[in-house]
Design brief:
CATH superfamily of the largest domain: ROS/MUCR transcriptional regulator protein
Largest sheet: 2 strands, antiparallel
Structural class: mainly alpha
Number of strands: 4
Shape: elongated
Low-confidence stretches: 50-56, 58-67, 71-77
Radius of gyration: 22 Å
CATH class of the largest domain: Mainly Alpha
Strand content: 5-15%
Distance between the termini: 74 Å
Helix content: 40-55%
Number of domains: 3
Mean pLDDT: 75
Number of helices: 8
Strand order of the largest sheet: 1-2
CATH topology of the largest domain: Arc Repressor Mutant, subunit A
Length: 175
């Protein structure tokens, strides 16, 4: 197995990401932070040498970064050393009952409110993390429950019926 060579920026980004997610989800006393950083650093450096295929994140390839920067909005370009989730990490973040936020690593039924609190729109979030436009903002079970409520209350398909009514009216006026 060949060793994966990464530069210091990639390593620092990965280390800071891991520490950030851990600290947001766990209570840590201030005096134990240096030891935590040392332990995560040692574990990360060992895992890089042993099996880099187990990484969940990778530095953005130049062509992926360029494609994200060429998007039709005028937001800031993606930095070259930005750590983005792999395709597998993106698939793993979508569960039937939850979505895992790449911002804080926590599970949510819907990301829109969470992103609003962070000052992000769904489009900005997708661009920031290199996610496809089809990436959901609501888990499947919540989406199906809301759909069932809409159908039961008669709200589902209202737009389709309205468009069909417009088409019928247009056909009558043309005859």
């Amino acid at each position: 197995m060949e060793d994966r060579k990464i530069n210091q920026v990639e390593y620092a980004n990965l280390l800071s990401y891991l520490l950030t997610v851990y600290l947001q989800n766990n209570k840590v006393e201030h005096y134990s932070l240096p030891e935590l950083i040392r332990n995560v650093n040692e574990s990360l450096s060992d895992s890089i040498r042993v099996d880099p295929s187990k990484w969940h994140f990778e530095a953005a390839p130049a062509e992926r970064t360029a494609a994200l920067n060429d998007a039709d909005d005028n937001s800031d370009p993606l930095p070259a050393g930005r750590v983005l989730p792999t395709a597998q990490a993106i698939r793993d973040s979508i569960g039937a009952d939850y979505l895992i936020s790449f911002e804080d690593g926590k599970k949510y039924k819907a990301l829109t409110r969470h992103l609003g609190r962070l000052g992000l729109t769904p489009e900005e979030y997708r661009k920031k993390w290199g996610l496809p436009r089809s990436y959901p903002m609501m888990c499947e079970t919540t989406r199906s429950k809301r759909s069932a409520v809409a159908v039961k209350s008669g709200l589902a398909g209202f737009g389709n019926r309205a468009r069909q009514g417009v088409r019928k009216n247009q056909k009558r006026s043309q005859s």
